[in-house]
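haha ok so turns out i had the wrong file open the whole time. this is the CORRECT one, sorry everyone. sequence first:
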Amino acid sequence: MGARSLFWPVLAFVAGILLLIAAPYRSVAIGVGMWSSCVLLWLVRNFLDYYLDAWIITDQAIIDVAWFGWFHRESSRVLFSDIQGVSYEIKGVLPTLLRYGTISVEKISTGASISLDTVPRPRKVEAVILRCMEEYLHSKNLKDAKQVQELLSSVLARELQQRELQGEDEDDEE
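then structure:
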């Protein structure tokens, strides 16, 4: 939804205030007060929906936290090893001038993507995600290589022990 979802509640609130200024009667004030209360509730809900949608970039994954209303929240985690691609889109004159856009991350397993709208400096955010992803995959490869090395050394040690035992058995038979 983004910041655009705040336009209509603000416009409705301003219209209520202008109506109150144009007709300063008690009945109009009561109506405008009830109208403004509803519009403020609408504005707060839309603001929280915009403000509380976030991505948390950790050293292992991206956590997408989404707020859909007063009683509905959702969170999903995408490990860097499950990411197929990261992209950004800056669409329009105003987003180009103000340098905001949409970031998308595509998952390998499902092919689905998660996206976050109205992100300031999306190129920079994309670079941060790619750098964190590269560091994670590099450290994971080093850990995997170390585990393979330990596994091979234990197999080699077992083989050498078995050969030594076979060599001792042959010496004993002679």
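The mean pLDDT is 84.
again sry for the mixup
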